[in-house]
Write a structure and sequence with these properties.
This protein is of the alpha+beta class. It has 2 domains: about 1-140, MutM-like, N-terminal (N-terminal domain of MutM-like DNA repair proteins, Alpha-Beta Barrel), CATH 3.20.190.10; about 145-275, Helicase, Ruva Protein, domain 3 (Orthogonal Bundle). About 25% of the residues lie in helices and about 20% in strands. It is built from 8 helices and 10 strands. It has helices at about 1-10, 135-140, 150-160, 165-170, 180-190, 200-225, 230-235, 270-275, and strands at about 20, 40-50, 50-60, 70-75, 80-85, 100-105, 110-115, 125-130, 255-260, 265-270. It has a 4-stranded antiparallel sheet with strand order 1-6-7-5, covered by helices on one side. A hairpin with a 2-residue loop joins strand 2 (about 40-50) and strand 3 (about 50-60). Helix 3 (about 150-160) crosses helix 6 (about 200-225) and helix 5 crosses helix 6 (about 200-225). The longest helix is centred in the last third of the chain and has 22 residues, at about 200-225. The two termini are about 40 Å apart. Residues about 285-289 have low confidence and may be disordered. Belongs to the FPG family.
């Protein structure tokens, strides 16, 4: 999300929002202010809070006088942002079967972006708010993982008995890590996804904390300057275990394994992370005896 925010910020900040087309009213989770209030306002900055994209706008010469109105976007698992230098001027068809949910005309004339969502599970969400704290999901976020000190990170882990995989991806506990990078972090830390967070030793917490920062820092550097269109493919090239089921682990050569649930899955290396034991691939997964 940081890479998307940086890319859009570099192309849209300082420019007005010329038009907003909404193809799916279902993605809008707020009605006051209306999305039309964004038109004519100037994009002050584009950033992120956890995994939420925040487009902050200020009044333009022909817009509402609200000091700040923010467009907040959560892409969920199947959503994406597509920037175009030749954005179609034809509004997407409301209620159509295409992937486009909203279209925002901003940046230089003719530029802007579509927010899209693939698949049938519609979880993409968009808010238009005067205060980002009005987005209940943001208000309930835990501290940003990269802003946590080692002591704060350790205290969060010590306060739960949940599996470490769940802790890393629970945005209410620690914000900013998704499914893919949690797999990468645990692989780098050589830690089982099913390890109990509250049972980790100080040394293990140190290792995990370092892995969080090294994996995310590497991702930020690798994705910096990439176009939005290339971010997904570039992200995949840097992954060692996530989405690599059946391929050899680049560290030890063992076969990458997968645990699947009804609507998600994660990957790991048995040799690097579970002492060679294979995790059962079913909803109530546990270590095979």
């Amino acid at each position: 999300m940081a890479a998307i925010a940086d890319y859009v910020d570099g192309r849209a900040a300082g420019f007005p929002i010329r038009r907003v087309d909404v193809a799916s009213l279902a993605v809008l989770k707020t009605a006051d202010p209306p999305y039309t209030a964004l038109v004519g306002r100037v994009i002050e900055s584009v950033g992120r809070i956890g995994k939420y994209l925040v487009i902050r706008t200020v009044p333009g010469p022909d817009s509402t006088a609200d000091p700040v109105i923010s467009l907040v976007i959560h892409l969920s698992r199947a959503g994406w942002l597509r920037w175009s230098e030749q954005l179609s001027q034809t509004p997407p068809r409301p209620g159509g079967k295409g992937p486009i949910a909203i279209r925002v005309h901003c940046g230089l004339p003719g530029e802007g972006f579509d927010v899209t969502e693939a698949g049938t599970q519609k979880r993409l969400a968009v808010w238009v708010v005067r205060d980002v704290g009005d987005v209940d999901r943001i208000a309930s976020l835990g501290p940003d993982v990269l802003a946590c000190t080692r002591e704060e990170f350790g205290a969060i882990l010590a306060g739960t008995t949940s599996r470490i995989k769940n802790v890393l991806t629970d945005q209410r506990t620690i914000a900013g890590v998704g499914n893919a990078y949690s797999d990468e972090i645990l692989h780098t830390a050589r830690m089982s996804p099913f390890a109990s967070a509250g049972s980790l030793t100080d040394a293990q917490v140190d290792t995990l904390y370092d892995a969080v920062h090294s994996v995310l820092a590497d991702a930020i550097v690798r994705l910096e300057g990439q176009t939005v269109a290339r971010l997904k493919s570039e992200k995949r090239t840097g992954l060692q275990v996530h989405a690599r089921t059946g391929l050899p682990c680049p560290v030890c050569g063992d076969t990458i394994r997968e645990v699947s649930f009804s609507d998600r899955s994660f990957q790991y290396c048995p040799t690097c992370q579970t002492g060679g034991k294979v995790l059962a691939d079913r909803r109530m997964s546990r270590l095979l005896k």
